[in-house]
């Protein structure tokens, strides 16, 4: 199974920061160590090209981001300290998702051990999201004629607000977001289908909703490619989640989404998205479960 990862996915932002940057190298190391991935499965991306970034982002935002000229207000909204390494990390992750999408189209499934940055708008970043990797990938694939219709299945606990805005009114991109009703962002622009979940939802209720809607979306829309944003912040011990899924529930969620895509004959690209468990090892384990599920479903 092709998977994108580079050491540059990690940037030192300080151990006290709430964003668990360390999860990226830890997930990679764990998957290799246990044999879920082999070293040959993992390919380091080059940085995304400017011409591709500008398909999804304004030139003003990209130019000022690259030059370190974001305002203090923009940096507070982003939630991450600027550095050249942070910009490079965003470019690597964006290309990683594009590379994975191309391999998924050819092989049925592929993934990126980062990505799913669904709060990055064309003209600004927010919520720890610098560049919108999925929007960049979709725009490149559209430009090259590789896809007709694309579906985003977003199971991060936070609504994919930027994706909803970027793809608003586009009949060939379906944005499905299943997220916490009372969670960030405060303003939730409508996507193609948004399901708002109450605080404290547990495994059984969550999985029941998922089983109702995902097959229906795939059957009705028939996408050429699915991007699966497999955020693990619905976890019961997540700092920002407010839902109550267990690690087992999250794995069953992943298995269901991936198996449903495979049974429908629809290629799927996996991205990590969010995860902020109080014990960072829980976040690592939950992300690893996504790839264990992919290996089980796709072989």
From TrEMBL:
InterPro entries: HDAC_classIV, HDACs, His_deacetylse_dom, His_deacetylse_dom_sf, Ureohydrolase_dom_sf. Belongs to the histone deacetylase family. Keywords: Hydrolase. Pfam families: Hist_deacetyl (PF00850). One of its GO terms (biological process) is epigenetic regulation of gene expression. GO terms for molecular function: histone deacetylase activity; hydrolase activity. Residues 17-281 form the Histone deacetylase domain. The keyword Hydrolase applies. This is Deacetylase, including histone deacetylase and acetoin utilization protein.
């Amino acid at each position: 199974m092709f998977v994108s990862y580079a050491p540059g996915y990690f940037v030192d932002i300080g151990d006290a920061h709430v964003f668990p940057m360390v999860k990226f190298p830890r997930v990679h190391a764990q998957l290799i160590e246990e044999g879920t991935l082999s070293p040959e499965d993992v390919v380091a991306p080059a940085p995304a090209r400017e011409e591709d970034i500008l398909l999804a982002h304004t030139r003003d935002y990209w130019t000022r981001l690259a030059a370190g000229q974001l305002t203090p207000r923009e940096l507070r909204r982003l939630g991450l300290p600027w550095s050249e390494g942070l910009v490079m990390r965003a470019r690597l992750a964006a290309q990683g998702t594009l590379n994975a999408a191309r391999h998924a189209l050819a092989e049925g499934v592929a993934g990126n051990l980062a990505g799913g940055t669904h709060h990055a708008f064309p003209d600004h970043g927010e919520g720890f999201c610098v560049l919108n990797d999925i929007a960049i990938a979709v725009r490149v694939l559209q430009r090259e004629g590789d896809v007709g219709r694309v579906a985003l299945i977003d199971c991060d606990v936070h609504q994919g607000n930027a994706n909803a805005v970027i793809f608003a009114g586009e009949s060939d991109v379906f944005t499905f977001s299943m997220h916490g009703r009372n969670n960030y962002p405060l303003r939730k622009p409508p996507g193609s289908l948004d399901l708002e979940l109450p605080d404290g939802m547990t495994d059984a209720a969550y999985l029941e909703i998922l089983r109702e809607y995902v097959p229906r979306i795939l059957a009705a829309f028939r996408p050429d490619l699915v991007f699966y944003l497999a955020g693990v912040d619905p976890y019961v011990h997540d700092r920002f989640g407010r839902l109550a899924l267990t690690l087992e529930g999250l794995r069953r969620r992943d298995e269901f989404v991936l198996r449903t895509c495979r049974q429908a004959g629809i290629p799927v690209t996996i991205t990590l998205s969010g995860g902020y468990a109080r014990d960072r090892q829980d976040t690592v384990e939950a992300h690893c479960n996504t790839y264990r599920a992919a290996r089980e479903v796709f072989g």
